[in-house]
Amino acid sequence: MFGNLFGRNEEPVDVSDKVIKISKARCPQNHACPSVRVCPVGALKQKGYGLPHADMSKCVKCGKCINYCPMRAIYFE
């Protein structure tokens, strides 16, 4: 998993072939997902307090949702 989208030398990591995944084991699913609010294109969605999902047809792979998730449940794979 990526803590952020940069390597040790602050060089961007290539994520062009990656997809956003959400770990059901790490996501508590008892609140509104804070990462949904930071997605600049509305690619991350959540129904009620359920597990969020990423619409990869909208995702620009900016990594904001990954970096903002307090549980580190969102990652690139």
In terms of DSSP E residues, the strand content is: 5-15%
Give the mean pLDDT: 88
- The gross shape turns out to be globular
User: Can you tell me the CATH topology?
Assistant: Alpha-Beta Plaits
CA(first)-CA(last) distance: 8 Å
Helix content: 10-25%
How many distinct domains?
1
Give the structural class: alpha+beta
Describe the model.
This protein has 77 residues and is an alpha+beta fold. The chain has a single domain, classed as Alpha-Beta Plaits (2-Layer Sandwich). Helix content is 13%, strand content 13%. It has helices at residues 34-38, 64-68; strands at residues 20-22, 44-45, 53-54, 74-76. Strands 1-4 form a two-stranded antiparallel ribbon. The chain has a two-stranded antiparallel ribbon with strand order 2-3. Strand 2 (44-45) and strand 3 (53-54) form a beta hairpin. The protein starts with 19 loop residues before the first strand and ends with a strand. The model has no long low-confidence stretch (mean pLDDT 88).
